[in-house]
Amino acid sequence: MAKSKKYNLEERLNKEVASFIHEAREPGVLYETTSSITYQDFLSDKMLIIKAIRMGVPYSLFNLIQDYTPFTESDWASLLDVSTKSLQRYKQSPNHHFKPLQSEKIIEIAEVTDVGLDVFGDMDKFKLWLNTPNYALGNLLPMELLRDSYGKELVLGELTRISHGILV
C-alpha cells in the first residue's frame, strides 16, 4: 500500500471511528471529545470495543476496515459467515449495522491486522505469512485459523512470539 494511500485510509478510519463513537457516546462515560479518538485508540480500548460490538459496527466503518486489511471480500464473507451477495447488499444500505457476532469478528480481524502490520511492517509480508503453512500452528494457514476466536488467539500468540524473536 502506497504511503499516501495508507495515510489517507488511516485518516478516514480515524474520522469514521470518531463519528461512530460520538454516535454511541453516553455523556461522562466515554470520551468527552470524540474528535480526538483515533482508530488505534479504539483498538486499544476494550470498553469502546464492547460498546461497538453491542451497537453493531456500521457498514461505513467495516468498509474502511476491509480496505485496511489484507482480506478480500470473499475472505470477509467467509469470516463473517455471510454470502458475498449479502455483503454487496449491505453496501447498498450504508446505514446497515452488523449483528453483534459479526461486529465482534470484524473487530477481531482488525486487531489481528494491526498486530500483523506491527510485526511485519508491510501488508504484503503479513499477507504472505497469513497464507503460508505455519509449523507452530500445526502446519495450518494462519488465515484458516481466523475463522473462530480460539484460532485467532493462536494466531495472535504466534505473532507475539515472532515480534519477540521466539521462533519454533
From TrEMBL:
Residues 50-110 form the Antitoxin Xre-like helix-turn-helix domain. One of its GO terms (molecular function) is DNA binding. Transmembrane segments: none annotated. InterPro entries: Antitox_Xre, Xre-like_HTH, Xre/MbcA/ParS-like_toxin-bd. Pfam families: Xre-like-HTH, Xre_MbcA_ParS_C. Residues 118-165 form the Antitoxin Xre/MbcA/ParS-like toxin-binding domain. This is Putative toxin-antitoxin system antitoxin component, TIGR02293 family.
